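Audit log entry. Action: structure prediction of a protein-small molecule complex. Ligand: magnesium ion. The ligand was supplied as SMILES and no pocket hint was given, so placement is left entirely to the predictor. Protonation state taken as written. Sequence taken verbatim from the request; no trimming, no tag removal. Recorded inputs:
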Amino acid sequence: MIVWTVANQKGGVGKTTTTIALAGILAEQGHKVLLVDTDPHASLSYYFGIESEDLELSVYDLFTQVSSREQILQTLCPTHYSNIDILPATMSLATLDRSLGAKGGMGLVLKKAVQKVADSYDYVLMDCPPVLGVLMVNALAAADRIVIPVQTEFLALKGLDRMVKTLEIMQGEQTAPFKYTIVPTMFDKRTKASILAFKKLQEVYTNKMWPGVVPIDTNLRNASLARKVPSDYAANSRGTIAYKSLLNYLVKQNVKSSEVES
Ligand SMILES: Nc1ncnc2c1ncn2[C@@H]1O[C@H](COP(=O)(O)OP(=O)(O)O)[C@@H](O)[C@H]1O
Ligand SMILES: [Mg+2]
């Protein structure tokens, strides 16, 4: 089981879209995928038609009690894609930081939870809220690799600096170094701003960058309205092709890093 966490402290940069696009392609390739929605806005859950307010159990419950494998299996929801299940979010997640307060030892809740269902899934993809709190910390700590989508515009680059600093601060508590890949999104080759932002990214983050870009593609937005994964909604669209190439790259990185470790 491989865990990828999609994170950035800035909203609207393509985190949820990236999570869904990668999940859709992995599922199509025959992999079993577990999605974990850690955003109280529950966009990912909503994408799959899950009305989070109707749920009896959600990611929230993983934090209030130590869950057994059976309880975790009860918490997850199937989706209309047979290879994709989801641990859904609810609004109550927004209260988690306050209710847990200074309670220590809560940083590995998600990591331990997904490990209990590891033999049922090939990939776990975690979607993050744009807020650094217990949920993002948990999602980062569970990750084999962090995928950081960044919109190709200057304001978003500042957000990226903040995200990378967060990883450096969190690094202190980790045994292995965080592995992360920066993914330029919503690239518009017709605008100077996009091109300049992309150049700047390559300059500053050279070896942390996926060499490609996800272009602006309205199919990605329309796929979400149709509640379909992009590779199902528009298999040959520019967005899907870009995400396929990103997936190949991430899989290769994975092989490389396991070679280094062994
Ligand atoms: N490459 C893209 N081209 C066009 N629209 C996109 C693209 N990526 C994301 N979007 C749209 O931008 C909005 C924000 O994306 P989303 O994935 O929800 O961001 P986040 O999860 O970081 O807040 C959504 O409406 C989504 O459909
Ligand atoms: Mg989102």
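Audit: result stored. The longest strand covers residues 145-151. The chain has a mean pLDDT of 94.
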